Amino acid sequence: MTGGPRRQVRVYTDRGCEVVQLLGEIDNASAGLVERDVLLSVRATTGVVVDLTPTTFLDSAGLRCLDRLVIAFTNRGAPVRIAAPPDGMVRFTLDLVGMLPELLAENVDEALDEMTG
């Protein structure tokens, strides 16, 4: 017996913004739990970076989760950026579905620079 599902959300603060790392595969099996974890863990109004660097897979449920997170934080008045390396499969997926380019950054530092610089 296992100790339950592995936590796929890690949150830390950098430059006054909250950085949310999404770990592993964000898919139909995990997207709902990931979304709930993020919304319960992040209280930021200064800014939120969703770090997809450690994300290995994002399906349509993962994309919906990401879209709902962007809307939720925007409604809270928190600017949002999504960090996804330009050469990764997750970034390819985001580009393919037409994620707004102004939300995307190549890495967390660039995203934080855009929001705090």
Written overview of the protein:
- α1 packs parallel to α2 (60-75).
- This protein has helices at residues 31-41, 60-75, 89-96, 108-116, and strands at 9-14, 17-22, 24-26, 48-51, 55-58, 80-83, 104-105.
- It is of the alpha/beta class.
- The model has no long low-confidence stretch (mean pLDDT 92).
- It is globular.
Provide the fold topology:
Layout: E1 9-14, E2 17-22, E3 24-26, H1 31-41, E4 48-51, E5 55-58, H2 60-75, E6 80-83, H3 89-96, E7 104-105, H4 108-116
Helix pairs in contact: 1-2
Short description:
The protein has 117 residues and is of the alpha/beta class.
**Helical/strand content category:** alpha/beta
Computed Rg: 13 Å
| Average pLDDT figure | 92
The helix count comes to: 4
N- to C-terminal distance: 48 Å
Approximate helicity band: 25-40%
SSE sequence, one letter per element:
EEEHEEHEHEH
Query: Uncertain runs with pLDDT below 50, 5 residues or more?
Result: none
Strand content: 15-25%
Report the major sheet.
5 strands, mixed
Q: How are the strands of the biggest sheet laid out side by side?
A: 1-2-4-6-7
* Tally of strands: 7
Structural descriptors:
117 residues, alpha/beta, five-stranded mixed β-sheet, two-stranded parallel ribbon
